[in-house]
Amino acid sequence: MNHTDIDIEFQSPEAIRLLQEEKLRQAIAYLAEHSPYYQSMFAEHGIDPASIKTIDDLQRLPFTEKRDLQLRNADFLCVPREKVVDYITTSGTLGDPVTFCCTESDLQRLAYNEKKSFECAGLRPGSIVQLMTTLDKRFMAGLAYFLGIRELGASVIRVGNGIPELQWDTIRRIKPDTIMCVPSFILRLIQYAEDNGIDYRASSIRRIIGIGESLREQDFSLNLLGKRIKEKWDVELFATYSSTEMSATFSECCHGLGGHVHPELIIVEIIGDDNLPVPDGEYGEVVVTTLGVEGMPLLRFRTGDIAAKRTEQCPCGRNSYRLTPLVGRKNNMIKLKGTTLYPPAINDVLDNTAYVDAYQVVVTESEAGTDDVLVRISLKPAAAHDQADTLVKDLKDRFRSRIRVAPRIEIVDPALLASQVMPPKSRKPIKFLDLRHHQ
Q: Of 295, 328, 361, at which residue does a domain stop?
């Protein structure tokens, strides 16, 4: 890949926009020539691809929806099958998983993307990263991280997820400086260390890069999960946001003021309820156009995630815009007793309640047509079940102080709940179950 000697993120906003628009024109021309899906979309809507020259011109194009990928998956492939070197599927957040095909060029782009993201989070050649994510099960993330760490010239330890005993044994033996994992797993690591006399504060770990869960509030202060980790373990915390569809990562820098975009890889629009772009700083749905993808590029793909763009220069010197922590997913919005909620706010309370071992949030529709929220929890062994009524009352009080309303709470057998949160074929825990559309 050809990239300028001076990182585009540190160049002027005008230079960044010019580069993005040049790459957009290249992407549109590529889709017009190679993508069966977008060829038919241009024809159906009477759009001349050559007329799409600027980021503002994107508004003339229809969105690409998750269901388009599900219904016409093969039509998004722009290369012959023999050029595909890696097959990936999404985790199916909104339904059936979608297959993504990566070429050699796409894997090189992924490596470049993750290299830049790791540099943003302070990694350098010689850093040692303990990777607590899976590289199997058709997952993009673990492979992308491995490729990026390798591209950076750092070292990687592929431990995989779970198994605190193995994680601590690896930390003791190899002495990594960085952990990469789902942030709530850190609490399990700390608990295991405390239960087994491991002095985790004196370990080699100096940095934790979180994936899949937020560590910050919208004002960039640490949320409950971030505070709890930081109070226990004074390490640097970095949050990231990424998805298979956009083949790009938004990573925080040391200032923790949002996830930096890599502008040569992706264009982001923030769309309001009227499907038009909102002013910078306002919240809306994240819509992405991939740049430089060869196998399955996407044009104006609706992620369903709600965030805002921050465009002022970051203290780190980057002029590329940043995304705020996600508020939630548009499809997962809950209206509980008149209060609008997203699952991350509920998760944050549960992740930071010491006696909760596992949980699942189930949303259904009441007979009156309003949202009904049931939080199913299992208790840690130390929490006596004869105190169930007291614990339920305490948890409801925690919800009211945090989100102003309290859902229904049910205490469930740990083995039963574990089988429902992590069924055999699932790659991610199912902590949120939306049954409103299936009744």
A: 328
DSSP sequence for 291-321: SS-SSS--SSEEEEEEEEEE-SPPTTS--S-
Does residue 439 form part of some domain?
Answer: no
Check residue 439 and give its pLDDT: 42
Residue 255 banded pLDDT, cuts 50, 70, 90: very high
Residue 356 φ then ψ, to 5°? -85, 120
Find out whether 291 and 264 touch, Cβ atoms under 8 Å.
Answer: yes
Q: Tell whether 156 is covered by a domain.
A: yes
Helix (DSSP H) and strand (DSSP E) numbers for the chain: 11, 20
Domain boundary among 328, 358, 393: 328
Whether the per-residue pLDDT at 91 is higher than 60: the answer is no
Same domain, residue pair 164 and 94: yes
Half-sphere exposure of 383 (CA within 13 A, CB side): 21
Rounded Cα–Cα distance for residues 57 and 61 (Å): 8
The domain total for the chain is 2
Query: pLDDT digit string (tens) for 293-342?
Result: 999 999 999 999 999 999 999 999 999 999 999 988 887 888 888 777 88
In a 10 Å sphere around its CB, with 0-12 CB exposed, 13-18 middle and 19+ buried, how is residue 328 labelled? buried
**What is the tens place of the pLDDT at every residue in 163-217?**
999 999 999 999 999 999 988 889 889 999 999 999 999 999 999 999 988 899 9
* C-alpha–C-alpha distance, residues 226 and 216, integer Å: 7
Q: SS3 breakdown of the chain: % helix, strand, coil, rounded to 5?
A: 35, 25, 40
Task: Please tell me whether residue 76 adopts helix, strand or coil conformation.
Answer: helix
| pLDDT band (50, 70, 90) for residue 285 | very high
Residue 94 has pLDDT above 50, yes or no: no
Token pair for 209: 């890069």
Residue 166 falls within a domain, yes or no? yes
Task: Give the helix ranges, DSSP H, for 82-233.
Answer: 104-120, 140-152, 164-174, 183-195, 224-232
Instruction: State the pLDDT at residue 134.
Output: 85
Helix axis angle for 183-195 and 343-351, nearest 10°, is 10
